[in-house]
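Hi,

I'm pasting everything inline rather than attaching a file, because the server keeps stripping attachments. The sequence lines come first, and each chain or strand is labelled.
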Amino acid sequence: MLDISQVYNINFLEEGMLSVIPEAIVIIFAFIVLFLTFFEKLSKSDNPYYLSLISIGFSMLYILMLSGRTIDGFYGSIVFNRFSVFLFIGILFSGFLTILMSKNYIDNFEVPLPEYYSLILFGVASMMLLVSSNNLIMVFLSIEFMSITAYILTGYLKGNLRSTEAALKYFVLGTFASAFLIFGSVFIYAATGHLNLYNIHFFIVNIASKGLVNFGDIKIYLAIGLILFLVGLAFKMSLFPFHSWTPDAYDGAPTPVTNFMATGVKIAAFAIFLRIFSLIYNFNIMDFNNILWMLAILSMSFGNIAALMSSNIKRLLAYSSIAQAGYILVGIIGGGYYGYSGTLFYLLAYVFMTAGAFAVVIIFENFDLMSLDIKKYSGIGYKYPIVAAAMTFFLLSLAGIPVTSGFMGKFYVFSAAIKSRYNLLVLIAFINSAFAAFYYIKIIVRMYMPDKEELIASLNGVQRGGMSGGSDQGKPSGDFGIVNGKINEELMIVIFICLFFTLLMGIYPQLFINFAHNSISSLWNI
Amino acid sequence: MDFFIKYLLSILIFFPLASVVLLLFINKKNEGLLRNLASILSLVEFIFSVYLFVYFKPDTYKFQFVEKLNWISTFGASYFLGIDGVSLFLILLTTLLTFVSLISSYRYIKDHIKEFVILMLTLETFMIGTFASLDVLLFYLFWEFMLIPMYFIIGMWGTGRRVYSAVKFVLYTLSGSLIMLFGLIYIFILHYDQTGNFTFNILRLYNTHIPINLQILLFIALFLGFAIKIPVFPFHTWLPDAHTEAPTAGSVILAGVLLKFGVYGFFRFAMPLLPAATLMLAPLVIIIGVIGVLYGALVSMVQKDLKRLVAFSSVSHMGFIMLGLFAMSAISVDGSILQLLNHGITTGALFLFVGMLYERAHTRQIADFGGIAKKAPILTTLFMISVLASIGLPGLNGFVGEFLILIGSFNHYMLLTIIATSGIIFAAVYLLWMFQRVMFQGITNPQIESFQDMDLREIITVLPLILLMFLIGFYPAPFLERIDPTVVHFLSMISRHGYVHNLIKLKMGLSNA
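And the predicted assembly:
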């Protein structure tokens, strides 16, 4: 007779609960925030905002307490290890910065507040679940969870046409991608008979080492499954042929949500891809690096060309995020300790530089399309020196100029790829980043070197004739920013946090490299 | 004092940055204080750098003032500083020219003074860092970030098509640098494959064995990065634009220091890291250099704009320096390095004078000038000295450098040297012709009627440069005796590889037979 306590081992359950504590904290707080809607007075105040921040802090605390351990929960479908810790911190930072940014932004709209914050918390929790999930079903569920919060948040500005359109587009395409994901999982299950990633891993390792005869049949199923799965994930990572939702969704969503999608969703999608790739893709089934190679090149080239041609800053950042996804992928292609830790490093760096850039966008956003045109950034370098300097720094970081985290990240992933002798790929990536510098610099030009004549003409409607270089000493010292920024404390905190980390990761990256190394080493500790 | 001398390089690098922090707290409106404080701080920086010269031991090629700290141990990158005879003088040149360009811009820069002085001092930090670092990653960090302050200086205070020029400057050099970074990372990885250690220590990377085919490819990669910076003939197109539109201070720094980085990069990185490819491709590089000499000179002759003329003369002079460097005899390399300093001093001075003319007449067209000699005798005299130094008149600095380059390379590349010599004649033609049209002849432009001579500040600006011209012209020994050991070591490093390389070829040939 089986004892009931043996089957439902209490320790086992306890361990399971322990493995999801950081997520559970966030979810509990998300519900608390949600319940605030019942109380009219509470929901109108700043309480949801503060509660959300507190929940992130608590979750961070629990992660620090648990860090260093490896906890398998729920029969191996959730694994909490050092790999998760690194990404949890990235995701929590992304959520934290998003919440800070949202405070004054979302007040401008007639939308319910507590729901908004609770959705962000749910989003954070889903991303954390995704990162730590170790089972194909769990992966699918968390991706769906994450996507649904993202759909709702994208369309959160009720009545705003562009927001609604973006949400619908994102939703339709996203569901399509989810279908690929589940279809891929089915094929993988059919081929291997397992859902747990570790089991699939051992199954493939076994088969590969024994060289069983019927490997051929399994191979086809597995290859189809993995390709379909890759398509589903590539959609979330916004790699080139599957990127089409990105510009519209990023553009239409409320800007803090855009930031959330650009940093949180991306970090989570890349993390789970990294975990799955290192566990079950990296075998002799077929050469996935060749596919990724092309995806990387296409993503960065397309992203850069499209960004070059867009004049809306949110769209520009959206396209640039497609290009950045291409660069991050180079790290995964590079592979090994070096490449994977480089990928993690780049992801963390990417969170801070992108969040910083979006915070500056929020400052100058006037809730109409015109204020997002980069032409409107003319002269803000003189009117808002600190904000503009910070923006310059973030843009330089995105462009990969040294002293910033972006350079270190690029250096890290590119050298990993050279180490694995993907020379052509890296050369193309380098050319791409030189090319990309152009559109980042274009914004800096707008901020600091506005065209005086053009500006005067657009202000007065007067067409000035050819200025024969005689306008002696350059420009007048008056300010000529058109956009009025709304600087508030929360946004400045975001900007300073992002500046601090972008600079620190650029000057002394060793701390973060050690951290990334540590977390990658746990990826192979099965 | 011991502490000061021991960490002198770090102090030199970070003192300007500390000054920037200080300046940040000064009110934007307080322009006089900002200017004066920045000038004084850069003077202090220059005085610090003189200590470098005083405490430098001249009789060794070994790196001095070495500082080494762990930085990114994962990549084997360290905060590794040190100077030899070559970087010593380049650092001195940097600090001097930063000071000179700061005091030269009292009249030229009228708005956004705070931003200007902050950018200049930031730029100084990164320039000194580039010359002082012996770690490839650290070097690249300083090297590339340097673009950004320069870009702002051109773009914010430039004239005419300033934005176009600034963006062109950044994109050009950035693409070159990134290709160069590719090459450097490749060497780093090769070193790892051979030894199992990640290191960016340049002294260790020198020992990497790279097959000759790969060396040639890597040399091309590094060549692109450095040649664009110099700039060597086909890659020079950013230079005239950037120089012409930049403010005077920007032009001085650009010509005086930034152009030196390319040559320094060849000297420190490309040639010793890839000796076999260097030996193989040297004739090609020299041909490109000589084309640059002639092209720069010929184009200078037809320029109507004063600044453009000086800018193209830089292309010509840099061609000379490439000739000397790649001729690879001790004398010619000595001459090249000395000529680097000379070019920084004389071209810097020329740009200062052009700036003064522009401040007074508000034009840079040669045709608009004429008859200034009567109005401004001091300016004419000092300008004349600089022009003659640039031409290479014996007794002034240009002569020493050019003479050494020419006699050094004559043995190895006779024909090319003879062709390059004509560059000096052309230089005399375009510079003297320009001088004659600007300074003498009758006054045609009414604005010249009220032309003022140099005031005390302007004389102080150019005086150190003029004095140096005479000093190097008459007594180059203190400079050459510090440069020489480094150069001899540099050549022995390359030729040792060359010897091994020949030996391998010999063996291969024998085994094939």
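The interface with chain A takes residues 70-75, 108, 110-112, 137, 140-145, 147-148, 151-152, 155-160, 162-163, 166-167, 170-171, 174-175, 178-179, 181-182, 185-186, 188-189, 192, 362 of chain B (CB under 8 Å).

If the labels don't parse on your end, tell me and I'll reformat.
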